[in-house]
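Comment thread on ticket #2218

A.B. wrote:
> Attaching the input chain for the structure job we discussed in standup.
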Amino acid sequence: MLSPKKVFCLCFFSVLTAVGSAQTAPKAITNADIVKMVKAELPESTVLLTIQASPHAFDTAPEALIQLKADGVPSKVIEAMLQAGAPGAAPAAVPAAAPVAPSNPMDAAIHAGLWGAKQTRVEVDRVFLIDGETRTDMKYTQPSTRTRFNPFGGTQQFAVLNGTRAAFRIKNRKPVFKMILPSNVQPSSVLALARLGERPNGSREILIGGGYMSFSAGLPKDRNVPINIEKAADQSEAPEGYELFEITPGTSLLSAEYSFMVVKAGPGASAGIFGMGSSANYNFYEFAVD
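C.D. wrote:
> Ran it. Output below, let me know if you need it in another format.
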């Protein structure tokens, strides 16, 4: 049996240990801390190491992650936050077990985490182009705009891309695009495939709105390529609240410059279809068919 003196010493030592732990325990990092580091222009590798080495209290709700994207947080950092906050995730320093590789290349891309974590959120502005056996994660551009006004012919607004040739070029005249979109979005209202026109000043453009004293929605018929939009047969990898879609041209593409156009939703973006004026927030995934 312990003497009263020994009991007192043990209790005192326990209190000191608890106080010391409370004083030295590192503070959990939050979404706001990540945004601060990014805006301070710390290297991406430094931010990732901080996520790995620190306790965290990340908000990974869809709205929070969309705001992170708007604040300029890189995709790799957002993915690291999702992985760190996933239920049952292994410690960051311990590599996770590799998943069983599916036979379908697109399923392999999904299992590898290209779409984002299931039951959390995905990058809905991500577009894959499937060209035979080749799968390309397309890069987007947000174009500038040009407005032309004619006192007798109304106004016209154009989306303008620099250069006369897209760096990404294919030979397949009926490529397949794959996207994940929120379940409450009508895909035809936010997606379009446009054939771009070349300008003498070394740029490419597409008319996105026009009218007399106002803008009317819609692309020019001769440059608006019809597309077929279908839900993918296998939806097992789509996160809750999202659906997987396959988009194909309605006709064989000509040898020309193109852009797969996506209207972005989010803070400050206009909702709805093309032709909204300069306030519309577009992502242009440019490519060319040779």
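A.B. wrote:
> Thanks. Noting for the ticket: Confidence is low (pLDDT under 50) at residues 4-23, 88-122, 212-216, 266-280.
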